[in-house]
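tl;dr need the bound structure. longer version: we got a ligand (benzoic acid) that a collaborator sent over and nobodys looked at where it sits. i said id run it. heres the input, straight from their email, havent touched it
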Amino acid sequence: MTTAAETANLRLGDTAPDFIADSTIGKLEFHKWLGDSWGVFFSHPKDFTPVCTTELGEAAKRSADFKKRNVKVLALSVDSVASHDKWKGDIEETQKCLVDYPIVGDGSKRVANLYGMIHPNASDSFTVRTVFVVDPKKKIRLTMTYPASTGRNFDEILRVIDALQLSDAHKVATPVNWQDGDDCIIPPAIQDPEELKTNYPKGFKTIKPYFRVTPQPNK
Ligand code: BEZ
């Protein structure tokens, strides 16, 4: 059994810790609930607060974008499930959305500590705004941490998921500010001419020997 102290400093490539917790859809077993999907697991500081209301509303409004990418969304704060259930009404009313993803109630801070979502020098009682993107093998592929005062950018979360899924499928990396449809980068480790021909049938341009660009393979 992994302890909170051992897992609080979660890094890319680590297995996302499994847990069982109460949520707005009842008892939730994290890995089982994820199944073969990707996951976005994000914490917010507190129910009935304005920035959080906009973020949870945005996560709901982007439901189709997440589904299209085979991503399940899960939220968490250290409030109770009863509190989440009441607040959901406000989110839906003010943000004009349907909150169709579960929210974990973590009054004991057990899951928050397991994921290092509490940063004591920012606040010892609330979770900060963390995001974990988890792939179908349950590996952590992205971590983000934002302060309580700054709402996250869900376009950016979706952009990174697109980039990760593209890299997994097509052996490409993505350059600064990449958007879906832009040219991609061929990893420098790929040098074999046959492999280059097979992997990048649209061809590539060599800018420097270590810097080659190719049209986005799946467009
Ligand atoms: C908010 O969601 O508005 C918020 C939450 C905690 C601290 C500051 C702002």
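gonna send this back to them w/ a short note. The chain has two domains: 4-151, 171-214.
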